[in-house]
Inverse folding.
């Protein structure tokens, strides 16, 4: 047992899933299909107003968890009678969760230490890991690859006092490097939503390959750029999915009335409190008491703001198999829509080539509106071009613009850059039988295998085009 594990009380009688406080007997997974796809936004808004937990939106339907299927059907009948409702999973507790927790009992990690698994990715990625295991694993990974990895243990502290960690991956600058410019930066975030376990696992998969691989695509990326990863943005929520409620999404802010949790992906200071978030503290999409109120969001912003040359950001979520590009708060296309759409489509093609999975590339708002979302905030954080190219480079760009347009660029124009910014919703798709957030552990490795090359393409495109 490492020092890290001792300090954090790991291995002290693990009781995963045994003393859960929240159960889902009688809750069903229902598929809601409006007669016309034009009715989807209205349906989504209605579900938000009814405080229904939305699991997936894909292919013209919305899959939701219904605590009371009859009540939901009655409400739909009253407000949107054209919506068809079908039951996909009649009892979430027995059909999805019971099997899932049984599989936890036979985890290798119950017997074998994290250190023993560090150089055995096949074993490590064959199961899900709790927070102590994940944090210990990142510590050991950084320690074993000091040349490439730097770990910062506390870029923030949560409501329950847990540390939020960040890692930086890059190769030392070699004497014969063909450029003297400082390296561009890529930001990756995982685990903003607690129950989306494949997001935490896929972030580890990317981190593992960045730290250990000799593949030319990875070594050249680390020669030219820095990748900064916040691997578990919402550790309190993640711990709670292991010991309290497997389907918890938010952080664990406790308010005076006993309501818990802010949806961190509605709390960023960008159009905060507008469409697509809830003012109601019990809602799964609660926006929080004020913009940027949550320590996890503040940590994420601080790490991002510490990157003067950031050219791309990525947020890993689950599920539905979607590649989402900015923005989520307005229907109006951002300036870079054409580039964004092309990069999203290319990532989808790369993913499909690996295991044949269909990921849909679309604009966030075309899924549903969100305000206060991470990816919209990242996209808004412009950087002066001179950070990336130096004053000389900016001068060259301005001279070229002068030649082309016969007049100087307006102040600030052409001299600022915006990072690419995407959300990927990982596996599963939206299958008729579930399993939603309770994705089988045997899918961790295939998911990593399809996402890693898409990520490498994304990072490469960003460093060459921004
Ligand atoms: N499913 C994630 C969430 O609800 C990502 C949403 C992406 N943004 C959007 N505008 N649809 O937080
Ligand atoms: Zn999510």
């Amino acid at each position: 047992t490492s020092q890290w594990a001792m300090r954090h009380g790991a291995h002290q009688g693990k009781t995963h899933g045994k003393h859960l406080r929240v159960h889902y007997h009688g809750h069903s997974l229902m598929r809601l299909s409006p007669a016309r796809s034009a009715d989807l936004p209205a349906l989504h808004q209605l579900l938000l107003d009814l405080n229904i937990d939305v699991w997936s939106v894909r292919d013209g339907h919305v899959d939701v968890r219904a605590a009371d299927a009859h009540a939901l059907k009655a409400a739909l009948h009253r407000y949107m009678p054209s919506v068809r409702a079908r039951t996909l999973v009649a009892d979430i507790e027995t059909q999805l969760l019971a099997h899932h927790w049984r599989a936890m009992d036979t985890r290798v990690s119950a017997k074998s230490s994290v250190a023993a698994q560090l150089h055995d990715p096949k074993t490590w990625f064959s199961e899900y890991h709790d927070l102590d295991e994940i944090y210990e694993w990142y510590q050991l990974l950084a320690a074993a690859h000091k040349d490439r990895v730097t770990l910062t243990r506390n870029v923030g502290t949560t409501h329950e006092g847990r540390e939020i960690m960040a890692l930086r991956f890059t190769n030392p600058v070699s004497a014969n490097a063909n450029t003297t410019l400082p390296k561009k930066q890529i930001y990756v975030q995982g685990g903003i939503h607690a129950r989306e376990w494949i997001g935490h696992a896929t972030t580890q998969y990317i981190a593992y390959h960045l730290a250990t691989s000799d593949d030319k695509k990875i070594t050249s990326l680390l020669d030219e750029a820095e990748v900064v990863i916040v691997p578990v943005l919402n550790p309190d929520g993640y711990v709670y999915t292991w010991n309290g409620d497997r389907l918890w999404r938010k952080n664990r802010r406790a308010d005076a009335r006993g309501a818990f949790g802010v949806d961190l992906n509605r709390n960023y200071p960008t159009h905060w409190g507008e469409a697509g978030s809830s003012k109601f503290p019990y809602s799964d999409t609660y926006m929080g008491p004020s913009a940027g109120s949550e320590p996890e969001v503040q940590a994420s912003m601080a790490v991002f703001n510490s990157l003067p040359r950031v050219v791309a950001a990525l947020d890993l979520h689950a599920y539905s198999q979607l590649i989402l590009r900015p923005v989520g708060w307005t229907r109006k296309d951002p300036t870079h829509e054409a580039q964004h759409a092309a990069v999203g489509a290319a990532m989808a093609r790369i993913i499909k080539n690996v295991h044949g999975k269909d990921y849909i590339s679309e604009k966030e708002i075309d899924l549903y509106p969100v305000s206060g979302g991470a990816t919209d905030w990242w996209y808004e954080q412009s950087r002066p071009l001179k950070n990336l190219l130096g004053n000389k480079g900016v001068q060259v760009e301005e001279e070229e613009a002068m030649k082309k347009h016969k007049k100087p660029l307006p102040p600030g124009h052409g001299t600022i850059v915006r990072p690419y910014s995407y959300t990927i919703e990982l596996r599963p798709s939206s299958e008729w039988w579930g399993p939603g957030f309770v994705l089988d552990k045997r899918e961790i490795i295939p998911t990593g295998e399809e996402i890693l090359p898409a990520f490498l393409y994304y990072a490469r495109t960003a460093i060459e085009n921004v």
